[in-house]
Amino acid sequence: MGERTRAYRVLVGSRLRSQLAYRRSFAMDLLGSGAIGLLEFAEVYVIFANIDVLGELDFAAAALLFALANIGFSLADTVIGHVDQLPTYLRQGTLDAFLLRPLPVLAQLVTSDVSLRRLGRTALAGAILVVSLLMNDIDWTAAHVALLVIAVLSGTAIFAALFVCAAAVQFWLVEGAEFANAFTYGGAYAAQYPASIFSVPMRVLFTFVVPSAFTAYLPVLVLLDLEGPAGLPQWLGWCTPLAAVGIWAVALGGWRAGLRHYTGAGS
Amino acid sequence: MGFRRWSTYRLAAAAGAFTNTVFGLIKASITMAAIGAAGGTLAGYHAASGATYAWMVQALVAPLNLFGWADLAERIRTGDVAVALARPVDPQFAYLAADLGRAAYSLIPRGAPPLLAGALVTGLALPLEPLPYMLGLLSVVVGVCVSFAGWWLVNLAAFWLLDLRGPRTLYMVACQVLSGLIIPVHWFPDWLGVLAAWSPFPSMLQAPVDVITARVEGLAALQTVGVQLAWLFGLLLSGRLLFRLGARRLVVQGG
Questions:
Q1: How high is the ipTM of this complex?
Q2: Which chain B positions have a beta carbon within 8 Å of A28's beta carbon?
Q3: Domain locations in chain B?
Q4: Does A27 touch chain B (CB under 8 A)?
Q5: pLDDT per position as a tens digit, B89-128
Q6: Which keywords fit this entry according to its UniProt record (chain A) (predicted)?
Q7: Domain parsing of chain A, residue ranges
Q8: Residue A51: which of B16, B21, B37 has the nearest Cβ?
Q9: A115, burial (CB in 10 Å: exposed 0-12, middle 13-18, buried 19+)
């Protein structure tokens, strides 16, 4: 096992060191990524400066929802977000080099970069999470603690899978990279708000097709013991890992099909 | 030239329009839910006008190019800007002309799909008389120019800084919040509203949207466009001065 992962560890290690080499640049990038998180939170803040309750959630609950969705998304973005650069690799023919090496292409692509600066947003979301956990009235049973951990891990896995799905589509679309953004970034945006405010078709879309509601909203329903809207019973909050497994199956299937479709850049 | 360059990539435009539409769908839902929770009206927005705001913003975000561009900064960094300095045309106006061409192309392909989706899904609350549209078109054009002039200034920072990512991110965050892109400026709590009023950002997006949807009418609409023009003038002028300062500092190696 150690022998098999060595190549990846070397790759990731080199990427990490290169990002930390220019400390002031890196600090700026971290701040910038935190600022983007702040920008997203500004929307929630301004909305709740005008109203008290949105989709059954008060400000504290909405902050918890926001924090969970953002931690999952930013972690996924850190680890795997660069796969949306795939069109560049396709056009430049860099991907062909990956195909020559005796390692899975997706694993190479994932470990070819890690964007540590995106942790700035994770840090901001983490801070909001801590405050919102204190502000909310949560019954801290062992099951709820476990659910919180599961939600963060599965949420990250779900967003990561969405990134892979989006990358897989690029094998066909190359120039249409933005199509996929609708589901990765759009999913992340939708995940920050209670699914109860969406119309039923949208709720179905963002729960069962693009499972972003699983990353934050459904676990929050369980944590705060709220009843879900029609079609989204509270117990679904416990199914977050299932949703992660499901979307990963789709992502890997799509990736494999895409790679088979790929015929090379002629380099 | 800008028009032809951007009209070449049709699939990219379709993809962009699709993403704008999906975001419009989410944004309209959030806006309408917030207005519903406020009891039907929120800072003068009804459910229909709130949804219209959300769709209109998504329709205009591509033409206005609020997310910015960095080719000038890149050319300053590499020294290619020397070519622009040697040309017998004014660099700022040349860039502005190309940007207007880009905006003119993206107006219909990027703007129509979100509005069409909006009309089908939530319905749009649009004025019936022609005047707001005529003034609105002018307001959009001025908005494109203000947005350009702002990013022009950010790009010029490359004369003094090697790494522009920090200032670019800061500007982008300020721009997205204060322009009314993520939420109407009229919903801001007082302190943020004051901050927005003293910045050029509402002139980029909130002003055109207000004019087209006839949230401001008659004299007030003219006044809105007047404020936009004032910002445009100020930003373009400071851009010219800063460019001249920077160009004097610039040392390009080699020949």
A1: 0.86
A2: 163, 165-166
A3: 2-249
A4: no
A5: 888 999 999 999 999 888 888 889 999 999 998 888 888 8
A6: Membrane, Transmembrane, Transmembrane helix
A7: 2-261
A8: B37
A9: middle
